[in-house]
Amino acid sequence: MFDLTAVQAAIRQAGVDGWLMYDFRGQNVLAQRVVGLAEKKLSRRWFYFVPATGEPKKLVHAIEPAALDHLPGSQKIVYRRWQDLEAGVCALVVGAKRVAMEYSERNANPYISRVDAGTVELVRSFGPEVVGSGDLIQQFEAVWDDDQEKSHFEAAKLCRAAYDVAFDFIASEIRANGKVMETAVQARIMKHFADNGMTTYSPPIVGVGPHSGDPHFDTNVATDAPIQPGSWVLIDLWAKMNRPRAVYADYTRCAYIGDTVPEQYAKVFTIVAAARDAGINCAKAAFAVQRPLQGWEIDNATRAVIEAAGYGEFYTHRTGHNIGQEVHGNGAHIDGLETREDRRIIRRTCFSIEPGIYLPEFGARSEVDVYIDAAGAVHVTGGDPQTEVHRIIV
Q1: I need a labelling partner for 99 at 20 to 30 A (CA). Which of 30, 261, 296, 309 fits?
Q2: Which residues have C-beta within 8 Å of that of residue 293, sequence separation ≥ 6?
Q3: Residue 40 — pLDDT band, cuts 50, 70, 90?
Q4: Are 337 and 266 within one domain?
Q5: pLDDT digit string (tens) for 53-72?
Q6: Residue 41 has pLDDT above 90, yes or no
Q7: Which residues pair with 239 in a beta bridge?
Q8: Phi and psi dihedrals of 19, rounded to 5?
Q9: Which range marks the domain in which residue 165 is found?
Q10: Which residues contact 59 (CB under 8 A, 6 or more apart)?
């Protein structure tokens, strides 16, 4: 349900004159969701301009004239010719000096950059400065309601239990057969999800030895490898409750098959865990004093620990991502490496912190989810963070 009062309050807080939402054939899923068109397949360009104050204005094609009728605003321009469209865009933004769109200067943040360059040029030609709508979008795309918050904590508990299921399965299979394949562990986790009313967009990562050194390893039959005594294994899993609007939980843990964890494994994991904790502490410190916090700051705090330990070149990805109805959501990510994430971390949003060190022979990652509640309290979900390598005794 589109809440004009809330949207206009956010526009004023952002310091812009209006928010111009635009889409063509689903290219801008962010705007589609904000205006409630995510389930509709429109074939023509539409624009919806919400000013900081006053009545919104619509621009739609004659073949789909009712496309935006469900939204506030009685001012509707219907176009047929391209010349009419350009004149209509001018009428929408006339008098505005700064207009927010799903745009990122120099494509610094591609997660927000959903409006093509030509459309931005068109809007600019009528006078306004076009600025990014990243912080606006996340207020209406990434903020959880009470039901979503509840669904996350349900999923978090079940995802944490999935590790007990997986590690017990590994132990029992090795005792019985001397080994267990990566895909068999993956299948056991998927059964746990199904048995508990969960769903996921793709199966978990189960990586043994060198496979764990690939951050996005694809566990599959073509590369299937055995887990056996002396093996190092990384499991990254994500799932949500199987109901509408549920949100994901996403965690990574590492284990060693044996009584004593070799020194190199223990050393690298300890560094990764310390980096994870530095990121968590960065978030807690900022919210304790109500200091505005941007995603790149948490990434820098986490990355500094790994770089100081001499493993910076082996930490090849951002520290984390927003979590929502998709496991990689559309709010602020924890990134100062791949992009400079300058969106603010805001209340009632969730993100992962998942530093890793990836060596040719093995990789270590420790992932937790961090949720900022409505009061600004910082919650680390999914049980206590892993402090040492889990030992699977067989």
Answers
A1: 296
A2: 282, 283, 286, 287, 344, 345
A3: confident
A4: yes
A5: 999 999 999 999 999 999 99
A6: no
A7: 249
A8: -120, 120
A9: 146-392
A10: 46, 47, 48, 49, 76, 77, 79, 85, 88, 89, 91, 92
Tokens of 131: 């600025």
Please state, in angstroms and rounded to a whole number, the distance separating the CA atoms of residues 305 and 298. Answer: 12
**Residue 32, domain CATH:** 3.40.350.10
Instruction: Tell me what pLDDT residue 39 has.
Output: 82
Per-residue pLDDT reduced to its tens digit, 155-214: 999 999 999 999 999 999 999 999 999 999 999 999 999 999 999 999 999 999 999 999
Q: Which of 98, 119, 141 is the last residue of a domain?
A: 141
**Tens digits of residue pLDDT in 134-148:** 999 999 989 999 999
User: At a CB cut-off of 8 Å and minimum separation 6, what does 224 contact?
Assistant: 181, 182, 183
Helices 117-124 and 82-93: angle between axes, nearest 10 degrees: 60
C-alpha to C-alpha distance for 273 and 260, rounded to whole angstroms: 19
Distances (CA, A) of 258 to 162, 229, 394: 20, 6, 7
Q: How far is 176 from 53, CA to CA, in rounded Å? A: 70
Tokens (6 digits) for 70: 């469900």
- In angstroms, the first-to-last Cα distance of the chain is 54
Among residues 156, 162, 167, 157, the alpha carbon closest in space to that of 389 is found at: 167
SS3 readout for 136-182:
HHHHHHCCCCHHHHHHHHHHHHHHHHHHHHHHHHHHHHHHHHCCEEH
Which tokens go with 208?
């043994």
104 with 86: CB under 8 angstroms? Answer: no
DSSP for 51-97, written as a single string: ESSS--EEEEETTSTTTTTTSS-SEEEEE-SHHHHHHHHHHHHTT-S
Same domain, 257 and 230: yes
The answer to whether 174 and 227 have CB atoms below 8 angstroms apart is yes
Q: What is the residue type of 12? A: R
List, as own/partner pairs, every contact residues 52-60 make where C-beta atoms lie below 8 angstroms and the sequence separation is at least 24, other chains included. Answer: 52/8, 52/11, 52/12, 52/16, 52/17, 52/18, 53/8, 53/12, 56/4, 57/91, 57/92, 59/85, 59/88, 59/89, 59/91, 59/92
Average pLDDT, the chain: 97
- Give how many domains the chain has, as a whole number: 2
Pairing outcome for strands 75-79 and 57-61: parallel
